[in-house]
Specification:
With 395 residues, the chain is α/β, with parallel strands linked by helices. The chain has helices at 39-45, 94-97, 152-155, 161-171, 187-198, 211-220, 234-241, 263-273, 294-302, 324-330, 341-353, 372-381, and strands at 2-8, 11-16, 28-37, 56-57, 62-69, 81-84, 87-88, 115-116, 133-136, 144-145, 179-183, 203-208, 225-228, 247-252, 303-311, 333-336, 363-368, 388-392. The structure holds nicotinamide-adenine-dinucleotide (NAD) and zinc ion (ZN) (2 copies). One zinc ion is lined by residues 89-90, 92-93, 95-96, 104-107. Nicotinamide-adenine-dinucleotide is lined by residues 38-40, 42-43, 160-161, 164, 183-189, 207-210, 213, 229, 253-255, 258-259, 294-295, 312-314, 338-339.
Length: 395
Protein backbone atom coordinates (compact mmCIF):
# COMPACT_ATOMS: atom_id res chain seq x y z
CA UNK A 1 0.00 0.00 0.00
CA UNK A 2 0.97 3.66 -0.25
CA UNK A 3 1.85 5.55 2.93
CA UNK A 4 3.58 8.72 4.12
CA UNK A 5 6.85 7.67 5.74
CA UNK A 6 9.07 9.74 8.05
CA UNK A 7 12.75 9.35 7.11
CA UNK A 8 14.67 11.96 9.11
CA UNK A 9 14.17 15.59 10.17
CA UNK A 10 12.81 17.57 7.20
CA UNK A 11 12.43 14.45 5.06
CA UNK A 12 9.29 12.44 4.46
CA UNK A 13 8.37 10.34 1.44
CA UNK A 14 5.30 8.77 -0.09
CA UNK A 15 6.17 5.17 -0.77
CA UNK A 16 4.95 1.61 -1.11
CA UNK A 17 5.09 -0.38 2.13
CA UNK A 18 3.64 -3.77 3.14
CA UNK A 19 -0.08 -3.80 4.04
CA UNK A 20 -0.73 -3.95 7.80
CA UNK A 21 -1.71 -7.27 9.39
CA UNK A 22 -3.73 -8.03 12.49
CA UNK A 23 -1.40 -8.93 15.36
CA UNK A 24 -3.93 -9.29 18.19
CA UNK A 25 -7.46 -10.71 18.20
CA UNK A 26 -8.91 -7.36 19.41
CA UNK A 27 -7.60 -5.39 16.43
CA UNK A 28 -9.02 -4.47 13.06
CA UNK A 29 -7.75 -3.16 9.75
CA UNK A 30 -9.38 0.00 8.39
CA UNK A 31 -9.31 1.06 4.74
CA UNK A 32 -8.77 4.81 4.90
CA UNK A 33 -11.20 7.06 3.02
CA UNK A 34 -10.04 10.41 4.47
CA UNK A 35 -6.94 11.44 6.41
CA UNK A 36 -5.42 14.83 7.31
CA UNK A 37 -2.20 16.68 7.99
CA UNK A 38 -1.94 18.19 11.50
CA UNK A 39 0.31 20.76 13.16
CA UNK A 40 1.68 17.86 15.22
CA UNK A 41 2.89 16.26 11.96
CA UNK A 42 4.91 19.43 11.31
CA UNK A 43 6.62 19.19 14.74
CA UNK A 44 7.47 15.62 13.93
CA UNK A 45 8.68 16.43 10.42
CA UNK A 46 10.93 19.11 11.92
CA UNK A 47 12.61 16.52 14.13
CA UNK A 48 11.05 17.71 17.36
CA UNK A 49 9.66 14.39 18.51
CA UNK A 50 12.19 12.12 20.14
CA UNK A 51 12.39 8.47 19.14
CA UNK A 52 11.16 8.77 15.58
CA UNK A 53 13.01 6.05 13.68
CA UNK A 54 13.34 6.44 9.92
CA UNK A 55 10.61 4.34 8.30
CA UNK A 56 7.84 5.40 10.73
CA UNK A 57 4.42 5.66 9.06
CA UNK A 58 2.86 8.93 10.17
CA UNK A 59 -0.62 10.50 10.36
CA UNK A 60 -3.12 10.25 13.20
CA UNK A 61 -6.34 11.79 11.85
CA UNK A 62 -8.18 9.23 9.71
CA UNK A 63 -11.48 7.47 9.11
CA UNK A 64 -12.62 4.75 6.76
CA UNK A 65 -14.23 1.37 6.24
CA UNK A 66 -13.55 -1.76 8.27
CA UNK A 67 -11.64 -4.18 6.06
CA UNK A 68 -10.92 -7.04 8.46
CA UNK A 69 -11.51 -7.80 12.14
CA UNK A 70 -9.68 -9.92 14.69
CA UNK A 71 -11.71 -12.79 16.14
CA UNK A 72 -12.40 -11.05 19.45
CA UNK A 73 -13.69 -7.81 17.92
CA UNK A 74 -17.40 -7.59 18.79
CA UNK A 75 -18.49 -4.14 17.68
CA UNK A 76 -17.38 -4.12 14.05
CA UNK A 77 -17.80 -6.03 10.81
CA UNK A 78 -16.20 -5.72 7.42
CA UNK A 79 -17.86 -2.83 5.59
CA UNK A 80 -18.73 -0.71 8.66
CA UNK A 81 -17.98 3.00 8.43
CA UNK A 82 -15.75 4.03 11.29
CA UNK A 83 -13.97 7.07 12.71
CA UNK A 84 -10.80 6.42 14.72
CA UNK A 85 -9.66 8.92 17.40
CA UNK A 86 -5.91 9.54 17.50
CA UNK A 87 -5.25 8.32 21.09
CA UNK A 88 -4.98 4.53 21.43
CA UNK A 89 -6.56 3.35 24.68
CA UNK A 90 -7.04 -0.14 26.11
CA UNK A 91 -10.32 0.78 27.83
CA UNK A 92 -9.54 -1.37 30.87
CA UNK A 93 -6.59 0.04 32.82
CA UNK A 94 -7.10 2.38 35.74
CA UNK A 95 -6.40 5.46 33.60
CA UNK A 96 -8.90 4.42 30.90
CA UNK A 97 -11.46 3.64 33.61
CA UNK A 98 -10.98 7.20 34.83
CA UNK A 99 -11.48 8.38 31.21
CA UNK A 100 -7.88 9.61 31.05
CA UNK A 101 -7.53 7.99 27.61
CA UNK A 102 -4.30 9.68 26.59
CA UNK A 103 -2.67 8.39 29.76
CA UNK A 104 -3.54 4.72 29.15
CA UNK A 105 -0.87 2.60 30.80
CA UNK A 106 -1.32 -0.51 28.68
CA UNK A 107 -1.37 0.77 25.10
CA UNK A 108 2.22 1.96 25.25
CA UNK A 109 4.87 -0.15 26.92
CA UNK A 110 7.61 2.06 25.45
CA UNK A 111 6.96 5.50 26.87
CA UNK A 112 5.53 7.60 29.64
CA UNK A 113 2.33 8.60 27.86
CA UNK A 114 -0.60 6.74 26.31
CA UNK A 115 -0.17 5.58 22.73
CA UNK A 116 -1.16 7.45 19.58
CA UNK A 117 -1.16 6.61 15.89
CA UNK A 118 1.82 7.79 13.86
CA UNK A 119 3.78 9.51 16.65
CA UNK A 120 6.89 7.32 16.81
CA UNK A 121 8.31 5.05 19.47
CA UNK A 122 7.63 7.22 22.52
CA UNK A 123 3.91 6.99 21.69
CA UNK A 124 3.98 3.22 21.31
CA UNK A 125 5.39 2.86 17.80
CA UNK A 126 2.02 2.40 16.06
CA UNK A 127 1.86 3.00 12.29
CA UNK A 128 -0.06 6.09 11.19
CA UNK A 129 -3.06 6.82 9.04
CA UNK A 130 -1.68 8.82 6.11
CA UNK A 131 -1.88 5.52 4.30
CA UNK A 132 -4.30 3.29 2.45
CA UNK A 133 -4.80 0.92 5.39
CA UNK A 134 -4.21 1.12 9.15
CA UNK A 135 -4.09 -1.44 11.92
CA UNK A 136 -6.37 -0.27 14.75
CA UNK A 137 -5.65 -1.82 18.19
CA UNK A 138 -8.39 -2.23 20.84
CA UNK A 139 -10.98 -1.88 18.07
CA UNK A 140 -14.00 -2.07 20.37
CA UNK A 141 -12.81 0.75 22.66
CA UNK A 142 -12.41 4.11 20.92
CA UNK A 143 -13.59 4.06 17.28
CA UNK A 144 -17.15 5.29 16.64
CA UNK A 145 -19.75 4.51 13.98
CA UNK A 146 -20.61 7.29 11.56
CA UNK A 147 -24.13 7.50 10.09
CA UNK A 148 -24.38 7.58 6.30
CA UNK A 149 -26.18 10.92 6.48
CA UNK A 150 -22.89 12.64 7.39
CA UNK A 151 -20.01 13.09 4.94
CA UNK A 152 -16.37 12.34 5.77
CA UNK A 153 -15.65 16.08 5.69
CA UNK A 154 -18.35 16.83 8.26
CA UNK A 155 -16.90 14.43 10.84
CA UNK A 156 -13.22 13.84 10.07
CA UNK A 157 -12.03 16.42 12.61
CA UNK A 158 -13.63 14.39 15.41
CA UNK A 159 -10.47 12.28 15.15
CA UNK A 160 -8.47 15.01 16.86
CA UNK A 161 -8.75 18.76 16.42
CA UNK A 162 -12.44 19.39 17.17
CA UNK A 163 -12.42 17.40 20.44
CA UNK A 164 -9.03 18.96 21.24
CA UNK A 165 -10.47 22.44 20.80
CA UNK A 166 -13.60 21.60 22.74
CA UNK A 167 -11.74 19.79 25.54
CA UNK A 168 -9.38 22.70 26.15
CA UNK A 169 -12.27 25.18 26.50
CA UNK A 170 -14.01 22.67 28.77
CA UNK A 171 -11.10 21.92 31.10
CA UNK A 172 -10.26 25.63 31.27
CA UNK A 173 -13.83 26.27 32.41
CA UNK A 174 -14.81 28.76 29.67
CA UNK A 175 -18.23 30.14 30.68
CA UNK A 176 -20.75 32.73 29.50
CA UNK A 177 -19.40 36.27 29.73
CA UNK A 178 -15.70 35.28 29.68
CA UNK A 179 -13.00 36.92 27.63
CA UNK A 180 -10.95 34.18 25.95
CA UNK A 181 -7.72 34.80 24.05
CA UNK A 182 -6.56 32.10 21.65
CA UNK A 183 -2.94 32.16 20.49
CA UNK A 184 -2.61 30.52 17.07
CA UNK A 185 -4.99 30.62 14.11
CA UNK A 186 -4.11 27.24 12.67
CA UNK A 187 -6.76 24.50 12.60
CA UNK A 188 -6.68 23.96 16.37
CA UNK A 189 -6.76 27.68 17.19
CA UNK A 190 -9.61 28.40 14.79
CA UNK A 191 -11.71 25.63 16.31
CA UNK A 192 -10.79 26.64 19.87
CA UNK A 193 -12.02 30.17 19.10
CA UNK A 194 -15.25 28.69 17.81
CA UNK A 195 -15.68 26.39 20.82
CA UNK A 196 -15.04 29.30 23.20
CA UNK A 197 -17.89 31.20 21.50
CA UNK A 198 -20.04 28.06 21.61
CA UNK A 199 -19.54 27.90 25.38
CA UNK A 200 -20.73 31.49 25.71
CA UNK A 201 -17.53 33.55 25.82
CA UNK A 202 -18.44 37.20 25.37
CA UNK A 203 -15.17 38.17 23.71
CA UNK A 204 -12.81 35.97 21.75
CA UNK A 205 -9.43 37.41 20.81
CA UNK A 206 -7.28 35.60 18.23
CA UNK A 207 -3.50 36.05 17.88
CA UNK A 208 -1.20 35.02 15.02
CA UNK A 209 1.25 36.59 12.61
CA UNK A 210 -0.06 35.23 9.33
CA UNK A 211 -2.46 37.75 7.79
CA UNK A 212 -4.52 35.22 5.80
CA UNK A 213 -5.06 33.12 8.92
CA UNK A 214 -6.13 36.15 10.97
CA UNK A 215 -8.56 37.04 8.16
CA UNK A 216 -9.81 33.45 8.15
CA UNK A 217 -10.47 33.66 11.90
CA UNK A 218 -12.60 36.76 11.40
CA UNK A 219 -14.42 35.26 8.46
CA UNK A 220 -15.43 31.92 9.96
CA UNK A 221 -15.70 32.87 13.64
CA UNK A 222 -17.96 35.89 13.68
CA UNK A 223 -17.19 38.52 16.28
CA UNK A 224 -13.60 37.38 16.85
CA UNK A 225 -11.13 40.25 17.36
CA UNK A 226 -7.62 39.72 16.00
CA UNK A 227 -4.07 40.78 16.87
CA UNK A 228 -1.07 40.37 14.58
CA UNK A 229 1.92 39.91 16.89
CA UNK A 230 4.28 41.25 14.22
CA UNK A 231 2.54 44.59 14.58
CA UNK A 232 1.54 44.74 18.24
CA UNK A 233 2.57 43.11 21.51
CA UNK A 234 -0.37 40.77 22.20
CA UNK A 235 0.25 40.62 25.97
CA UNK A 236 0.02 44.40 26.28
CA UNK A 237 -2.84 44.79 23.83
CA UNK A 238 -5.00 42.16 25.55
CA UNK A 239 -4.40 43.91 28.88
CA UNK A 240 -5.50 47.21 27.29
CA UNK A 241 -8.54 45.61 25.64
CA UNK A 242 -9.67 44.26 29.02
CA UNK A 243 -9.05 47.49 30.96
CA UNK A 244 -5.98 46.10 32.66
CA UNK A 245 -7.70 42.96 33.95
CA UNK A 246 -6.64 40.40 31.35
CA UNK A 247 -8.48 37.47 29.78
CA UNK A 248 -10.23 34.88 31.97
CA UNK A 249 -8.84 32.07 29.87
CA UNK A 250 -5.92 32.05 27.45
CA UNK A 251 -5.53 29.10 25.12
CA UNK A 252 -2.23 28.16 23.48
CA UNK A 253 -2.87 26.58 20.07
CA UNK A 254 0.72 27.17 18.96
CA UNK A 255 3.01 24.57 20.52
CA UNK A 256 6.75 24.25 20.65
CA UNK A 257 7.49 25.91 17.32
CA UNK A 258 6.18 29.26 18.48
CA UNK A 259 7.70 32.08 16.47
CA UNK A 260 10.10 33.79 16.66
CA UNK A 261 12.27 30.76 17.55
CA UNK A 262 13.89 29.16 14.55
CA UNK A 263 12.57 25.57 14.35
CA UNK A 264 15.82 24.50 12.77
CA UNK A 265 17.62 25.40 15.98
CA UNK A 266 15.29 23.31 18.06
CA UNK A 267 15.51 20.43 15.59
CA UNK A 268 19.29 20.44 15.76
CA UNK A 269 19.34 20.37 19.53
CA UNK A 270 17.05 17.36 19.44
CA UNK A 271 19.07 15.70 16.71
CA UNK A 272 22.21 16.11 18.85
CA UNK A 273 20.47 14.53 21.80
CA UNK A 274 19.48 11.62 19.63
CA UNK A 275 23.07 11.25 18.50
CA UNK A 276 22.44 12.48 14.94
CA UNK A 277 24.75 14.97 13.21
CA UNK A 278 23.58 18.60 13.43
CA UNK A 279 21.58 19.94 10.53
CA UNK A 280 23.42 22.21 8.11
CA UNK A 281 23.00 25.97 7.96
CA UNK A 282 23.30 26.85 11.64
CA UNK A 283 25.59 29.34 13.34
CA UNK A 284 27.06 28.74 16.83
CA UNK A 285 24.95 31.61 18.21
CA UNK A 286 21.80 29.74 17.15
CA UNK A 287 22.04 27.62 20.26
CA UNK A 288 19.13 26.83 22.64
CA UNK A 289 16.45 27.77 23.82
CA UNK A 290 15.23 24.39 22.69
CA UNK A 291 11.55 25.18 22.61
CA UNK A 292 10.29 28.69 22.19
CA UNK A 293 8.25 30.07 25.04
CA UNK A 294 7.51 33.30 23.21
CA UNK A 295 3.83 32.45 23.03
CA UNK A 296 3.63 31.31 26.66
CA UNK A 297 5.24 34.54 27.87
CA UNK A 298 2.64 36.60 26.01
CA UNK A 299 -0.13 34.28 27.13
CA UNK A 300 0.78 34.62 30.81
CA UNK A 301 0.96 38.39 30.39
CA UNK A 302 -2.53 38.37 28.85
CA UNK A 303 -4.24 36.38 31.64
CA UNK A 304 -6.00 37.98 34.57
CA UNK A 305 -5.17 37.07 38.16
CA UNK A 306 -6.79 33.76 39.01
CA UNK A 307 -7.19 32.94 35.31
CA UNK A 308 -6.45 29.73 33.42
CA UNK A 309 -3.90 28.91 30.75
CA UNK A 310 -4.83 26.02 28.45
CA UNK A 311 -2.00 24.32 26.61
CA UNK A 312 -3.57 22.64 23.60
CA UNK A 313 -0.38 23.26 21.62
CA UNK A 314 2.13 20.45 21.98
CA UNK A 315 5.18 21.02 24.15
CA UNK A 316 8.01 18.61 24.65
CA UNK A 317 11.39 20.10 25.27
CA UNK A 318 12.67 21.75 28.40
CA UNK A 319 12.15 25.43 27.81
CA UNK A 320 14.26 28.34 28.98
CA UNK A 321 12.79 31.57 30.32
CA UNK A 322 9.55 29.90 31.34
CA UNK A 323 7.56 32.59 33.22
CA UNK A 324 7.15 30.65 36.44
CA UNK A 325 7.33 33.78 38.61
CA UNK A 326 4.40 35.43 36.84
CA UNK A 327 2.41 32.18 36.97
CA UNK A 328 2.95 32.14 40.70
CA UNK A 329 2.22 35.83 41.23
CA UNK A 330 -1.02 35.70 39.26
CA UNK A 331 -2.19 32.42 40.77
CA UNK A 332 -2.66 30.96 37.30
CA UNK A 333 -4.00 27.46 36.75
CA UNK A 334 -2.47 25.53 33.86
CA UNK A 335 -4.35 22.79 32.01
CA UNK A 336 -3.04 20.85 29.06
CA UNK A 337 -1.76 17.62 27.59
CA UNK A 338 -2.92 15.31 24.85
CA UNK A 339 -6.65 15.87 24.50
CA UNK A 340 -9.11 13.41 26.04
CA UNK A 341 -10.75 12.96 22.64
CA UNK A 342 -12.91 9.93 23.43
CA UNK A 343 -14.77 11.74 26.22
CA UNK A 344 -16.29 14.27 23.81
CA UNK A 345 -17.04 12.19 20.70
CA UNK A 346 -20.70 11.43 21.34
CA UNK A 347 -21.53 14.96 22.43
CA UNK A 348 -19.75 16.55 19.48
CA UNK A 349 -21.18 14.12 16.92
CA UNK A 350 -24.61 15.11 18.24
CA UNK A 351 -23.86 18.83 17.75
CA UNK A 352 -22.68 18.17 14.19
CA UNK A 353 -25.80 16.11 13.39
CA UNK A 354 -28.05 18.86 14.73
CA UNK A 355 -26.12 21.54 12.84
CA UNK A 356 -25.12 23.30 16.07
CA UNK A 357 -21.39 23.08 15.51
CA UNK A 358 -19.30 22.54 12.40
CA UNK A 359 -15.61 22.17 11.67
CA UNK A 360 -15.47 21.40 7.94
CA UNK A 361 -15.19 25.07 6.94
CA UNK A 362 -11.50 25.11 7.91
CA UNK A 363 -10.66 22.77 5.01
CA UNK A 364 -8.74 24.68 2.34
CA UNK A 365 -7.08 21.81 0.45
CA UNK A 366 -8.56 18.50 -0.67
CA UNK A 367 -5.85 16.35 -2.23
CA UNK A 368 -5.18 12.78 -3.23
CA UNK A 369 -2.86 10.83 -0.91
CA UNK A 370 -0.56 10.77 -3.97
CA UNK A 371 -0.16 14.54 -3.52
CA UNK A 372 0.60 14.33 0.21
CA UNK A 373 4.05 15.92 -0.25
CA UNK A 374 2.45 18.91 -1.92
CA UNK A 375 0.01 19.11 1.00
CA UNK A 376 2.87 19.08 3.52
CA UNK A 377 4.68 21.81 1.57
CA UNK A 378 1.66 24.10 1.43
CA UNK A 379 0.65 23.55 5.05
CA UNK A 380 4.20 23.72 6.41
CA UNK A 381 5.22 26.79 4.43
CA UNK A 382 1.85 28.51 4.85
CA UNK A 383 1.50 28.76 1.07
CA UNK A 384 -1.63 29.13 -1.02
CA UNK A 385 -3.64 30.38 2.02
CA UNK A 386 -3.44 26.87 3.44
CA UNK A 387 -5.26 26.17 6.69
CA UNK A 388 -6.14 22.46 6.69
CA UNK A 389 -5.29 19.72 4.22
CA UNK A 390 -7.31 16.56 3.86
CA UNK A 391 -6.11 13.61 1.76
CA UNK A 392 -8.04 10.85 0.04
CA UNK A 393 -6.34 7.57 -0.86
CA UNK A 394 -7.45 6.31 -4.30
CA UNK A 395 -8.10 2.66 -3.71
N1 LIG B 1 -3.23 18.66 22.78
C1 LIG B 1 -3.57 17.87 21.77
O1 LIG B 1 -4.10 16.78 21.95
C2 LIG B 1 -3.31 18.35 20.38
C3 LIG B 1 -4.09 17.89 19.31
C4 LIG B 1 -3.88 18.43 18.04
C5 LIG B 1 -2.88 19.37 17.84
N2 LIG B 1 -2.12 19.77 18.90
C6 LIG B 1 -1.10 20.82 18.77
O2 LIG B 1 -1.75 22.06 18.55
C7 LIG B 1 -0.83 22.96 17.93
C8 LIG B 1 -1.49 23.66 16.75
O3 LIG B 1 -1.84 22.73 15.74
P1 LIG B 1 -2.35 23.25 14.31
O4 LIG B 1 -2.70 22.08 13.51
O5 LIG B 1 -3.34 24.34 14.49
O6 LIG B 1 -0.93 23.83 13.76
P2 LIG B 1 -0.45 25.07 12.89
O7 LIG B 1 1.02 24.92 12.83
O8 LIG B 1 -1.20 25.14 11.60
O9 LIG B 1 -0.86 26.35 13.75
C9 LIG B 1 -0.01 27.03 14.63
C10 LIG B 1 -0.28 28.53 14.44
O10 LIG B 1 0.40 29.24 15.48
C11 LIG B 1 0.91 30.45 14.92
N3 LIG B 1 1.97 30.98 15.81
C12 LIG B 1 3.30 30.74 15.80
N4 LIG B 1 3.90 31.38 16.81
C13 LIG B 1 2.93 32.07 17.48
C14 LIG B 1 2.95 32.91 18.61
N5 LIG B 1 4.09 33.19 19.27
N6 LIG B 1 1.77 33.45 19.02
C15 LIG B 1 0.61 33.18 18.36
N7 LIG B 1 0.54 32.36 17.28
C16 LIG B 1 1.69 31.81 16.85
C17 LIG B 1 1.39 30.00 13.55
O11 LIG B 1 1.56 31.12 12.69
C18 LIG B 1 0.26 29.07 13.11
O12 LIG B 1 -0.77 29.73 12.41
C19 LIG B 1 0.39 22.09 17.57
O13 LIG B 1 1.36 22.25 18.58
C20 LIG B 1 -0.16 20.69 17.61
O14 LIG B 1 0.85 19.72 17.88
C21 LIG B 1 -2.33 19.28 20.15
ZN1 LIG C 1 -3.66 16.04 14.94
ZN1 LIG D 1 -5.84 1.84 29.21
Amino acid sequence: MKAVVYQKPYEITLQNVPDPEIKDSREMIVRVTTTCICGSDLHLLHGLYPHMPGGTLIGHEFMGIVEETGKNVKKWQKGDRVLVPFPIACGECEMCQAKLWTHCIRSNDKGEIGAAFGHGESYGGYAGGQAEYVRVPYADVSPIRIPDSLSDEQVIFLTDILPTAYWITDVCGVKPGDTVAVFGCGPVGLLAQRCAGFKGAERVIAVDQIPYRLDYAKRINSGVETINFQELDPGEVIQEMTKGRGANVVIDAVGLEAEPTNPLVAATVYAKRMGAPPLPGLRPEDNPPVASVSAINWEVEAIRHGGTLGLAGAYGAKAHSFPIGDIFAKGITIKGGQALVQTYLKELLGYIQKGKLRADDIITHRLSLNDAMDGYRKFGRREDNCVKVILHPNH
